[in-house]
Specification:
266 residues, alpha/beta, Rossmann fold, six-stranded mixed beta sheet, 12 strands
């Protein structure tokens, strides 16, 4: 059998000695969109942060493998170089740093690291990015996300609406071209028009070469981004998995009934 692209096995993680993840198992392959749903406090955002390498969380058991390689000991930038991307639920405001400068540095660092790794392995399919190529690429991706050119000159997330912050996250994803994208509650704080634009951006970027883990509370995002698989997280574990129809069942059943069933069988 082919090696899974992204494999989480029996993952346990804590913060400040409080265990949040209690044995998460999840496998994502290229070209697949997985939706992870669950109530507040179930561990969804903790999982996203742990996958990206957030230093505040301690992994106490389990493994995370990317194309068969264990990544738990890797720093966040090393994981980004491999092609792992996290879109934050609450993007950070950085006054004084323009979107264009931030994106240029991020894309240059990631692209150059991939080019150097490819060269060391005797491959030449990844080339370092030039300033001219970056400007062309940024303009192209901003048009895709219906973003005005003036957006690039604004300070990162300063004074941004909820929709603008989420578009900025998806713009980063478009420019970094990850092979594994983790989107933590991308629909949070969006009105219906912003949700539609962001969803169209994600759909245009998803494809055969990228896996997506879409973390959300609600069915409404899945009306625009169609998942191949849906997983329900309760009490730090994935307790149920299925196809797209599972999200609809959850919408009618609600989390409390499912939580009661999980606790009854624990």
């Amino acid at each position: 059998m082919a090696t899974p692209m992204f494999e989480i096995e029996n993952l346990h993680a804590s913060i400040e000695d409080k265990e949040i993840l209690k044995g998460v198992d999840l496998t994502i392959n290229k070209g697949e969109i997985h939706a992870l749903m669950g109530p507040n406090g179930s561990g969804k955002s903790t999982l996203a942060n742990v996958l990206a390498g957030h230093p505040s969380y301690e992994v106490t058991e389990g493994s995370i493998r990317f194309n068969g390689e264990e990544i738990l000991e890797m720093e966040p930038d090393e994981r980004a170089h491999l092609g792992i991307f996290l879109a934050f639920q609450y993007p950070t405001v950085i006054p004084g740093v323009s979107m264009a400068n931030f994106l240029r540095m991020a894309v240059t660092n990631v692209r150059n690291a991939r080019a150097e790794a490819a060269a060391e392995a005797g491959r030449e399919e990844v080339a370092k990015i030039t300033p001219r190529e970056f400007r062309r690429l940024m303009k192209e991706k901003m048009a895709l996300l219906k973003m005005d050119d003036s957006f690039a000159t604004r300070y990162l997330n300063e004074g941004f609406s909820g929709g603008e912050k989420k578009r900025a996250e998806i713009l980063q994803m478009a420019l970094l071209e990850p092979t594994m994208a983790i989107l933590d509650e991308t629909d949070s704080g969006l009105d219906i028009d912003a949700l539609r634009v962001v969803s169209e951006g994600v759909n245009s970027l998803a494809g055969d070469e990228m896996g997506v883990l879409l973390i959300t509370h609600y069915q409404r995002l899945l009306n625009y981004i169609k998942p191949d698989h849906v997983h329900i997280m309760i009490e730090g574990r994935v307790v149920q998995s299925g196809g797209p129809e599972l999200a609809g069942e959850l919408e009618s059943k609600g989390y409390e009934k499912l939580r009661a069933e999980v606790l009854a069988t624990a």
